[in-house]
Amino acid sequence: MNEHRQQAERARLGEAASPTSPWRLWGPYLAGRQWGTVREDYSAGGDAWRSFPFGHARARAYRWGEDGIAGICDVHGFLNLGLALWNGRDPILKERYFGLTNDEGNHGEDVKEHWWVTDGTPTHSWMQVVYRYPQAEFPYRELREMAVRAGRQAREPELSDTGVLEENRFFDVQVTYAKAAPTDICVELTATNHGPDPAPLHLLPQFWFRNTWAWGRDDRKPRLTASSRDGWRRITAEHGALGRYTLHVEGTPTLLVTDNETNEVELFGAEENPTRFTKDGIDRYVVRNDSTACQVTGPDDESAPGTKAAAWYSFDPVEPGESVTVRLRLVEGDGHVDAFGPTFQATVEDRLAEADAFHRTDLDPLRAKVVRRALAGLMWTKQHYRFRTREWLDGDPAQPAAPKSRQSPHARNAHWRHFDVADVISMPDEWEYPWFAAWDLAFHTVPFAMVDPAFAKEQLLLLCREWLMHPNGQLPAYEWEFGDVNPPVHAWAALQVFQIDPDRKFLAKVFHKLLLNFSWWVNRKDADGSYLFEGGFLGMDNIGPVNRSEPMLGQWRLEQSDATSWMAAYSLHLMRMALELARHDESYEDVATKFVEHFLSIAEASTRFGSGGRGIWDETDGFCYDVVSRRLPDGTVESQPVRVRSMVGLIPVLACAVLEPWVFEELPGFARRLEHLLARRPELGQFLSRRDGRVLLSLLDDGKLRRVLRRMLDEGEFLSPHGIRSLSAAHREGLEVHVADQEHRMGYEPGESRTPMFGGNSNWRGPVWFPTNALLVEALRTVESFHGGRFHVELPTRSQRHVTAGRAADELVRRLVSLFLPDHDGRRPADGKRIESTDSTLWREHVTFSEYFDGDTGEGLGATHQTGWTALVASLLTDRRQTGALGASIV
């Protein structure tokens, strides 16, 4: 039995290699937030937050997707099942998570709810989420007012600051999904009153179709029908593409049916609505006691067709410590003959046991819990993402004409009219970033490959497909501006996934696509062929003293250390891919030589960086900097380094790779070309080191690397108790930087951003970020693999303790994973001063994965459900390359 359970989920994965496989048909693909997204913004001014605010979401039909609490939908996003609640006090049904927009939040957008994804398996045969619902009226207005009063200098106010959670006056609602078969899903909702007094609770699981019919492009309308006949409560769904589904609901709830249509009378002052019932009908019936707002299905009755329905369970009251449970079963076809019979509980128990077996590990319980929770949250980031830019720009036939601003060549995403996606994509965050982001997604695929390599590979290939990638080879950055530039980490991620699951066909597919993307970088970001690159802000937002996304004034040009270093690393990643493919197909051998030559050309250019001939390397400081330069009227070039010690100067560390002996044995053509190149251009030899038949290619030689690492591993600069900071703490008191005839002041900010750049919701001026830390760990392991214990660094700097590069990587990993492990006080550093750090086990049992972490304390900041790239902690905890305890490596 145990062996069977261990293999059960892996067998399902074997059946689900394709994204269209039956086991992947249903999953957590329902968005956590659809309102306030670019794709729902049809305003002339392009202000997505104001165009579709939270207040509209309950009564206004979405164009491109749906959202809900702890919900699921089919892979096409047609049919949705989610949780709605009411505590008898809220002014509206709790149908979706609430948060503040960029304009409202004192540090950018910020969700003001508590929920945790607690478990899951890759095929979504088993999923659990816990949502914490206050018993007092939800403080919508108070949270907005608190953020205004706080200002940018103060912490973000949280739900707990309003007092509504005191004395544990909340319900924990555990939502469980267990698949008996790909289209037979058992659903259990268990709500527990943790407060000291009895409290009412209304649970309203909702079942609805995405509105596909109101836009004038497809008039076909699906049907939902509620029935209380034959002793069963059920809601039947019929859809032209999905077919027929039946949602069984246990007990005798009141069945409510309305339509997923906009209430134009209430929202926009129209004289009448196009349909009798509207999206907010269930809300109005339950909360406002409006008996005309929706259909009510009585005993032995059946409703007329609608497109949104709910089963209304009323528990008044729920006693302290008491739990109430609602069970549902979603089945393809006409339903199940014994929906809540023995097979229901057996399915729940079996799937839990199989999940336990699937996630079994030899890690200690605390670390195993972090890995399992991180992977569960990562799997929940998968959302159905539908967006057709051409239709969005032009508008829909049945809707008001698109504003003239949409026809401008400067309109948002106007140059991406080919973009046409309807796929499941892993999002950076369920609420704050409910749209794909290219470099986030690359990092997601590494921990995904641990449990679901097929999905990891599919995601990497998806961004390169012709309906996403621009015809010129650029990868779309994210919804707010597809044309922004993210670091080129796709090839690195592909190699990581390949190492976990060696699939040569996948490697060849993604390699061919990335050739197009590499060409885009060369043609668009190195237009003069100097091998120097200007990538813009490169995803690291406000890391510099100037906005790197905008042109500089006065003919000044910003020549970026990190953009050039990213491209050097990209060249090495593509070289490694080509070499691996060349082992079985000699036609790739010449391509590999192209990329090693490109790397060496970039490396050489970096030593005379910029049109002023100044390199990224600063001998005085022992660090790498951006350079600004301009050509003067007399033809001379003025240039100066931007002396800010930031992650920008650490990116050159990433540009390194080892050529193993098999390269020279199996690929003599590549070896001859490399030797010929070095004989003809001996100055390039400074970027190669040889040892025992192996070659290390590196942008920084050993001497420079040691000096950069001396700063990186200095606890007074980059090395924090919990990882590498994005800006040196040596700038803690602030510094003034003269850049391009202007004075700029900036400084180390360990926590939330105090600058309004990029909406004020991102901060690379001090916090610890997992993606760049993971890359630095990998670079140190590469150095270790070449030197084999012969390369030593002082750790921490000035400690007189010297360790190998491998042990330095281990120590960095130890500091990163310590964010999620209890310290000597029994508290997780990532919980910081938030309510999760209290002594209550109700809070401390839940691990929270944040967007980034305070550079001094490790407190989690930014998006609080950013399991995406922070799920890399699972990869770090299970990495078998660790070389042992730090102390053993002191020399």
Automatic annotation (TrEMBL):
GO terms for biological process: oligosaccharide metabolic process. It comes from the Bacteria. Transmembrane segments: none annotated. GO terms for molecular function: Glc3Man9GlcNAc2 oligosaccharide glucosidase activity. Residues 433-656, 697-867 form the Mannosylglycerate hydrolase MGH1-like glycoside hydrolase domain. InterPro entries: 6-hairpin_glycosidase_sf (IPR008928), 6hp_glycosidase-like_sf (IPR012341), Glycoside_hydrolase_63 (IPR004888), MGH1-like_GH (IPR054491). This is Mannosylglycerate hydrolase MGH1-like glycoside hydrolase domain-containing protein.
